[in-house]
Amino acid sequence: MSARWKEITLSSGRKVKIKELSIDEMDDCKDVARIIFDGSNLKSITGVNKAKTNWLRKGVYGGDFDSWKGGDGSQVPDSALKELSPEESDELMTKVQETQSLGEFKSSSMS
Fold first, then answer.
1. What digits encode the pLDDT tens for the residues 5-47?
2. Domain spans of the chain, in order of start
3. Is the pTM of this model over 0.90?
4. For the chain, where are the E strands, in sequence order?
5. What sign for the dihedral angle of Cα 21, 4, 97, 109?
């Protein structure tokens, strides 16, 4: 079965393909960050950067990268992730999450 994906455009103009994730893949991404409370007070948050990288590696299918085009099922390499500015990286992680949770892949306009 081939991956279902949706092309989005980041505010920078970069086009990126986001793939549909399984429930298990989404759970893996959600379980990386840890929020620790001391009673009712927030004590610490860890794993935020690992969580972002996990969402990007699992959710990006291809796009406008110099070092990688994707679309073949290969995992996003470090070289492609390093091409993203911090703003693009944050925006793309949010788009990957929103696309999964909003049921975007029920649309008939999918490739």
1. 999 999 999 999 999 999 999 999 999 999 999 999 999 999 9
2. 5-104
3. no
4. 5-9, 15-19, 34-38, 41-46, 60-63
5. negative
